[in-house]
Design brief:
alpha+beta; five-stranded antiparallel sheet
Length: 254
């Protein structure tokens, strides 16, 4: 990043402007967190800031504000019981694997439904995959579908009350670095990292993981960012007024 040298009287305005640009992006991120408070398994995000130093004409350090990225809060959201057979929550570190037109994607949103062919799918119609990377298909005559904590899906025939027939085992994946997962929309993530087994994860049937966004905290952050933006704007205005006054005096003197 190249910083042009600017007159000392304008330094404060340029530094304040860099702060405002960062605050605007921070507000956008906070607004997105708040908008997804009710989105199952949504993970809130925060911005990461650094100080960028530039040299002025008199070799003094000029400190700018720069945002270098954002960090996802991977903390587990609370589990809410729904009683629905195909609502599944993950306890621990792990992701469901689903098949999309763009390849395998990963999600913790476990609100699944049955499509017309008996496949377990997301709300977008993407098939939930088993440990063999095949869609999990529930037979038409299945009775009393049960999903165990290790992800095994079982059911009995329509004329039986037992649940001894195994349909498949849900593929749970984990990754070396969750922060490298990229959001692709609708609760799905993509990554170049190879998926690994998730031995510490367990599946909870009839449960849905809620968003881990805490509304009060996000609103507090939004208010703080808004106040900081206003304070910075006042600084810019004051500096601008001082510069105009100085130019006016110099012009009259000339």
């Amino acid at each position: 990043m190249r910083v042009e040298l600017i007159p000392d009287m304008e330094n404060a305005s340029f530094v304040a402007l860099s702060r405002q640009m960062v605050l605007q992006r921070q507000m956008d991120l906070i607004a997105n967190n708040i908008a997804n408070i009710s989105t199952p398994a949504f993970k809130g995000e925060r911005m990461v800031f650094i100080e960028y130093l530039a040299k002025t004409d008199d070799s003094q350090n000029l400190s700018y504000v720069e945002d270098i990225g954002q960090v996802r809060d991977t903390a587990e959201g609370s589990m809410t019981p729904t009683g629905n057979t195909f609502d599944l929550g993950i306890k621990g570190n792990g992701y469901f694997t689903v098949d999309t037109p763009n390849g395998q994607r990963y999600t913790r949103n476990g609100r699944f439904t049955l499509d017309g062919t008996g496949r377990l799918t997301t709300s977008d119609g993407y098939a939930l995959l088993d440990s063999n990377n095949q869609p999990i298909v529930v037979p038409e005559d299945a009775n009393g579908v049960v999903v165990s904590e290790d992800g095994t899906v079982s059911a009995g025939a329509s004329d039986s009350t037992t649940t001894t027939n195994q349909i498949g085992r849900i593929k749970l994946a984990s990754f070396a670095n969750d922060q490298d997962l990229s959001m692709t929309g609708n609760g799905l993530y993509s990554t170049d990292q190879p998926p690994q087994p998730a031995p510490d994860a367990s599946v909870l049937q009839g449960m849905v993981e809620e968003s881990n966004v805490q509304p009060v905290i996000e609103i507090t952050r939004m208010i703080a960012a808004h106040r900081a933006f206003d304070a910075t704007q006042n600084l810019i205005q004051t500096d601008d007024d001082m510069e105009r006054e100085a130019i006016d005096k110099l012009t009259r003197t000339s």
